UniProtKB/TrEMBL annotation:
InterPro entries: AKR_Detox_Biosynth, NAD(P)_OxRdtase_dom_sf, NADP_OxRdtase_dom. Residues 2-268 form the NADP-dependent oxidoreductase domain. This is Oxidoreductase. The lineage of its organism: Bacteria, Pseudomonadati, Pseudomonadota, Betaproteobacteria, Burkholderiales. It holds the Pfam family Aldo_ket_red.
Amino acid sequence: MWRMGEWKMSPQERLALVEQCIELGVTSFDHADIYGNYGVEELFGEALALRPALRERIQLISKCGIQLVSPARPAHTIKQYDTSAAHITASVDNSLKALRTDFLDLLLIHRPDPLMDFDEIAETFEQLRAAGKVKHFGVSNFSRHQFECLHRRIPLVTNQVEFSPLHTTPMYDETFDGLQDLRVAPMIWSPLAGGRLFRDDPATEALRSTIGRIANETGQPFGSVVFAWIMQLPSRPIPLTGSGRIQAIEEAVRATQIRLSRSQWFEILRAAQGHEVP
């Protein structure tokens, strides 16, 4: 939902998008306190208030831990991280108020904080669960070791990381291996590389050509092939869509029905890396 403020939708149009997503089987909506300069959660909450019964059919995810310099937060004088108990608790309360809900289904620490205290975070999570404010917990952009340090103290349900054919680092830095070992599914942000896969760029021409050929071979849309390539990983990644266009969301959903051949999968990897596997 991070771009929702840019979609220039009325509350009724936002509600219609949520309802169309639900019809497609897409029921999880990913937020962060900072999205839209601290404004997106409120936009979503306005839409949800038009049909409060929808809350029972969706999962609301939010993140905290980044502080931006913003007119919406005049006390912030520098961009920094804050994973203290006080900040996490206040962020959750703000998100609940903005989203007009009594609880979050999932709360993530947005980025690793050099000053984060694993014990303090785990204790804060336990208190939020006991208060009925948050059901499940996870992290975002954490290394394998950071994830496991917190996971030992309180069960985490995901690590949301960047991954796409243009950013394959989590396959090689133990992020995905560690999550697969723990049977924890990663969430994926920027699965389409922020739209770079659709742009005419000599640097990505070979990759786009390969994906396009496989899309033609399978009779599937280009975007669906990319999502399928990601979801075929054994750690069972859950990609996020970042689009307000229902057609793009439909393409992502189609990917759940696609199984690439092993050769097709490695053809995309080869094109992405510019060389065959060793």
